[in-house]
Write a structure and sequence with these properties.
The structure is a homodimer.
Chain A: E1 6-10, H1 18-28, E2 32-38, E3 55-63, E4 66-71, H2 75-86, E5 93-100, H3 107-110, H4 112-122, E6 127-132, H5 145-158, E7 164-170, E8 181-183, E9 189-199, E10 205-215, H6 223-228, E11 232-238, H7 247-250, H8 256-259
Parallel strand pairs in A: 1-2, 1-5, 2-4, 5-6, 6-7, 8-11
Antiparallel strand pairs in A: 3-4, 7-11, 9-10
């Protein structure tokens, strides 16, 4: 009998998140599923890893072809522990999410969900992060089933180019069905914080921060634009941050000491 | 009188780190200096940001043209607070480090030092992360003075292309002087963890993790290769993670639902 694909599932919204539950349900229809979820909400933890010897991992559920663990580390820790400690074989794919909240645009930089996918990609494992453009804890994910299954099966069958994973962002459910999938670039945009300070009793200033995301990109080829128009966006996402196109312009630094 | 450039200095090794002290000393010879350092060691915190309203910032030192604050957030928080809350004007440059430990190769992904530089870059501010290939708390930084000053002055004078910052890695001090600067690409490599488990009294498994970095790149155009040969490496580092070169290959995903 052919061995079923091993699917490692993780997220950054904690083990009770509805989006994780949906992703696990869908993955169990495709293969053997190992879940390693964060214990707490780890949104915006980026590619943080735990360096202190303080991690704990506990088995929460087990049934044939399915195990669910919870870990007090970050999403990146969960991925590492998943395939380096909890599994005898390398996963055929790592899927992360479904995140409650978009990871389009520069959100990908802060995202624990995408960091988990990128970590797997760095170790040569096919990886996809799924995110919905809604922060609601009770968000509706049912319009995504067919797409998530089709994308996952395609990656399992055909793989991904070396050095990239997929950042998949879904529009919220609306009156009309999703129009399709678009391959996109990451939109320009940024979070602008609004800090409010008060005097701390122990000295210093306590800060409360609100934040607003500002898109700075009018392009129709971005992940933001796709979602706004009820398409699913897929950004092929790399961890090689080298901006080779600027080697020439930056070349001047090789000579700065000779100039003096 | 011409206004001196405003230099925002941060790091991820905490406010007492020797590398931070060296960078502050050098920057004070160039311009007005605002330091916002992490309170604790925040190595490997990646692009993590604090979302809970729990940040605290305290003034530690002040003299003409110089202020030093400490913050209990992450390096990215320090940058945000530095120019959005503590300063009336936008910094002319953000410098981060000098990190105790290399941020060459894929270390850049995990690095709080580089995340701080990238965060500034995302907001259109010139930014440079400086790191030394030594984890020693008492590491020798004195062979770097002229290079750090020359690089910083060049960036202040000529700027950087939009959307990139510099990841500068220095070799340890050796018998021979540094040979020069090389513009490099990020080397391939990864951390391999070694987990050891023990039964927790509260149930579950506690994990101790050691880790070893493995270079997987023989190229002579990498940051790793430059440092190994006693050169300073500079990688132009981007936050746009879009792997445009794979748009064609990934294009198949636009049709997966039609295939069914």
């Amino acid at each position: 009998m052919e061995q079923k694909p091993l699917i490692l599932v993780t997220n950054d919204d904690g083990y009770q998140a509805k989006g994780l539950g949906k992703l696990v349900e869908l993955m169990r229809s495709i293969g053997e599923v190992l879940v390693v979820s964060t214990e707490e909400v780890m949104s915006a933890k980026g590619h943080s890893v735990t360096t202190a010897p303080s991690m704990k991992v506990s088995l929460m559920e087990i049934s044939p072809g399915y195990k669910k663990f919870v870990c007090n580390g970050t999403p990146v820790d969960c991925v590492k522990i998943g395939y380096q400690w909890l599994s005898d074989r390398k996963p055929d794919i790592v899927v992360s999410g479904i995140n409650h909240g978009t990871n389009a645009s520069t959100n990908v930089i802060y995202s624990g969900t995408m960091a988990a996918a990128i970590e797997a990609c760095m170790d040569g494992i096919n990886a996809v992060g799924f995110s919905l453009d809604s922060y609601e804890s009770d968000a509706d994910f049912d319009h995504l089933d067919d797409y998530i299954i089709a994308i996952t099966k395609d990656v399992l069958e055909n793989g991904l180019p070396e050095g990239i994973c997929l950042n998949v962002n879904f529009p919220q459910r609306s009156e009309e069905p999703i129009k399709g999938i678009k391959i996109c670039r990451q939109a320009k945009g940024k979070w602008i914080e609004k800090f409010t300070g008060c005097q701390s009793e122990q000295g210093g200033t306590c800060l409360w921060q609100g934040a607003e995301f500002v898109y700075e990109d009018e392009g129709d080829d971005t992940d933001f634009s796709a979602m706004k128009n009820n398409y699913i966006s897929i950004v092929p996402t790399q961890f090689d941050l080298t901006a080779r196109q600027y080697f020439g312009e930056i070349g001047r630094f090789e000579h700065i000491m000779k100039k003096k």
